[in-house]
Amino acid sequence: MSRTAEIASEHQFSADECDSLRRALLSWYAHHKRELPWRDIGDPYAVWVSEIMLQQTQVATVIDYYHRWLERFPTVEDLARAEREDVMELWAGLGYYRRARFLHESAAVVVDEMGGEVPRTVKQLKSLKGIGPYTAGAIASIAFDEPVPVVDGNVERVLSRLRAISGDPKATANQKLYWALAGDLVDPDAPGDFNQAMMELGATICTPQSPTCMLCPVREHCIAFAEGEPTEYPATAKRTRQRPMTVGTSVVVFGTGRAERFLVVKRPPDGLLGGLWEFPTVVDEDGKASSVDAYLEQCLATAGLETSEPNDLGELVHHFSHIRMTIRAEARRLDTEEPPEGAAEFDQPVDWVSRDELERLPMSAAMRKVLALYEQA
Ligand code: SF4
């Protein structure tokens, strides 16, 4: 199917080129693909889980999470029935926590409204929360052989080089062009393998800084290679400017050794790091530590508790996609050996947990860094 309306003539692949590219790429993929646990499994739910985890996260990091996830929630029913807390606990450390929330919610929709069957088409898949055009295309083509394209950063780069496409790869016009080209190229008989082959080529051969063109199966079709400057494409996209944010975090403890307990607060369900636990943390509007004091006072005073003077743990920086967060960390010790009765009058759920419980609690990577600072101190 040609999508000529969206493809300027200089970028179009001829029918012969499409055939030749498909053959070369599929043959290369059959011999050189990396063995990854989600490949060739035929389980749409597992493909879905892997694709959601692989958004924004490196393959090497995902592998362990993927195994643990499928051990704990082997089917979409298991995930749909799971407690949110357990889902977040298993996701903790992968970042972009909204992915886990949406996956959990969508599993419930699949079970309650779709008879427990993962949808088979891009259109149906996109009706689920957390599944956009890329993920829908990946699941539909890999798990159900729907002849639809996928375009991720790797595919953008390969196509930019094959057709010498200049300009910002994230610009709307270029995005339309990539999707149209990928739609023309995708192999109608092996769409899942073809899409994975394109992404694999971008991940292992046609890499951003140093493509190994001499090993590339589609070199003869590549304009950027013929021009001699493959890394000129695609143009480097402007980095999203990260908004600076400063927060104050206090590690509040009582007891020592095995009796040591940490105060943790659960974040509201929506927004940044929604539903995760953290040490008491406030956004430090004016750059002074006083706001942490006020917060802790509110948190602890009604339980009749007093803390020692804060012990400065130093500063660390943590990067989210749009936020550069500076965390000013401190530690305080409660003047008691008895388990505090609580921290009443507090807006969010709070708890006192042991070191072991802390390990299992769904917390962000930023809070794990704060814990490391505390332990070093
Ligand atoms: S020839 Fe080089 S630049 Fe072109 S697609 Fe292959 S690896 Fe990428």
From TrEMBL:
UniProt remark on cofactor binding: Binds 1 [4Fe-4S] cluster.
PROSITE patterns (UniProt xref): NUDIX (PS51462)
Cofactor(s), by name: [4Fe-4S] cluster
Enzyme's top EC category: hydrolase
All copies of domain Nudix hydrolase, residue ranges: 244-375
Catalytic activity: Hydrolyzes free adenine bases from 7,8-dihydro-8-oxoguanine:adenine mismatched double-stranded DNA, leaving an apurinic site
Molecular functions (GO terms): 4 iron, 4 sulfur cluster binding; 8-oxo-7,8-dihydroguanine DNA N-glycosylase activity; adenine/guanine mispair binding; metal ion binding; oxidized purine DNA binding; purine-specific mismatch base pair DNA N-glycosylase activity
Keyword Hydrolase tagged: yes
Enzyme Commission number: 3.2.2.31
GO annotation (BP), single: base-excision repair
UniProt keyword annotations, A-Z: 4Fe-4S, DNA damage, DNA repair, Glycosidase, Hydrolase, Iron, Iron-sulfur, Metal-binding
Range of residues in the leader sequence: none
CDD domains reported in the protein's UniProt record: ENDO3c, NUDIX_DNA_Glycosylase_C-MutY
Chain's role: Adenine glycosylase active on G-A mispairs. MutY also corrects error-prone DNA synthesis past GO lesions which are due to the oxidatively damaged form of guanine: 7,8-dihydro-8-oxoguanine (8-oxo-dGTP).
NCBIfam families for this protein: mutY
Record-stated family: Belongs to the Nth/MutY family.
Name recorded for this polypeptide: Adenine DNA glycosylase
